[in-house]
Design a protein that fits this description.
alpha+beta; about 40% helix; globular; 14 helices
Length: about 400
């Protein structure tokens, strides 16, 4: 099709028109250095079953897939990261599109989600000047800030993920998508038919990712495509389909979000505002206006507003004050006195983070990664704010 990608439609013969379904495969240029393992791991541990799937079982070949809603109709994307002989990374994407004209929007969503256009040199240069952060930056240059394919989805994920673990939030969101999300049907499978996540996942597989190797006659990565069967629900679908419990009403074990009533009411109210335009969240929003509007809503505090700014606005200097995982990472790095009380540790870290401005978001990613490695080794308590 062009120098940056290969377009192969499902139809043979004449070139597909803009309204034809197609399966393009496209190389995605990235600015080096690029921390592919970090961003793929971030997305994999937060993958919502049916909507997303990831396979990180081969360290040299990372894969992530998800559904999208594009102007021409439903779609799915599969992104591969492959380590080259010189230890850098290449990215390519295979797309299942309802219309050829959706290739541009699909690639724009991928580029935003994987933060491929950022030049990390300036951020790394600032952070490496800190003698405690320097070893982290030198070991993992090119850390990227995960974006989002849908700002409204990200707001919902942030609201649900407050004060609970990543795993718990992922479970709630999977139920929400299963109950309210529009079924997705890849070619050759009825709409909404799940592959079913395995009960015990091998390391590196996200919920919904298939186990084992696909048959030899199936194209590379098609097994991940086959595990996708839902779109993440829109704000309108959540506002109309999720019942907000009345004050004092006991939790309904059958409802998708089995959260306290005030938390569910906040999700429903925020989705209603997103759907009717009372709350506007998009990548080009004015940062201070967006923060102010978010903070005016029930159960949205500075942490959530900063997280939305980080991932939706691509704010390089967002700081998530009160984030338990950041303190865990800072302790592991030796940035904080291990005997410092929790509140004092948050204050001390916020003061230290001033020196990392205007790249505190990148510093946060380094500390989150370190906290995750230590937690995997059983040396840190599980974070309670889940940063979904």
């Amino acid at each position: 099709m062009n120098a940056s990608g290969r377009l192969g439609g499902r139809r043979s013969g004449a070139s597909p028109s803009s309204d034809d379904p197609v399966d393009p495969e496209v190389e995605i240029a990235v600015t080096a250095p690029y921390d592919a393992p970090g961003i793929f791991r971030f997305l994999a541990v937060r993958a919502v079953a049916g909507v997303e799937a990831a396979d990180l079982t081969r360290p040299e070949d990372l894969r992530y897939a998800r559904t999208l809603t594009l102007p021409g109709g439903p779609a799915a994307v599969l992104v591969f990261a492959t380590r080259t002989q010189n230890r850098s990374w290449t990215l390519r994407a295979r797309l299942h599109l309802a219309a050829a004209a959706d290739q541009g929007p699909a690639l724009a969503a991928i580029r935003a989600l994987f933060d491929v256009d950022t030049d990390p040199a300036e951020a790394d240069g600032v952070l490496v000047a800190d003698p405690v952060l320097a070893p982290l930056v030198q070991a993992t240059p090119g850390v990227r800030i995960p974006g989002t394919v849908d700002p409204h989805e990200l707001v919902v994920r942030a609201l649900v993920g407050q004060q609970i673990s990543v795993a718990a939030a992922r479970t709630h969101l999977g139920r929400l998508a299963g109950a309210l999300g529009t079924p997705y049907s890849p070619p050759g499978r009825p709409p909404g038919l799940p592959s079913g996540p395995p009960s015990r996942l091998p390391p590196g597989l996200s919920p919904g990712a298939p186990q084992g190797r696909p048959p030899r006659d199936r194209p590379e990565g098609e097994a991940l495509f086959g595990s996708l069967h839902r779109h993440f629900p829109t704000a309108a679908q959540i506002a109309s389909g999720l019942r907000a419990p009345l004050p004092g009403e006991g939790p309904d074990p059958l409802r998708p979000l089995r959260l306290p009533g005030h938390a569910v009411r906040a999700v429903v109210g925020t989705c209603r505002a997103l759907a009717d335009g009372g709350l506007t969240v998009h990548a080009d929003a004015e940062p201070e206006i967006l923060r102010r509007e978010l903070l005016a809503r029930p159960r949205i505090g500075p942490w959530t507003a900063a997280y939305v700014a980080m991932r939706v606005l691509r704010d390089p200097d967002a700081w998530l004050d009160g984030d338990v995982a950041l303190v865990a990472g800072a302790r592991a790095a030796g940035l904080l006195d291990p005997d410092l009380a929790t509140r004092a540790a948050h204050r001390a870290l916020a003061v230290r983070a001033v020196d990392w401005s205007p790249f505190r978001s990148s510093a946060a990613l380094h500390l989150w990664q370190l906290a995750g490695r230590r937690a995997t080794m059983g040396r840190d308590a599980r974070p309670r704010r889940s940063a979904l």
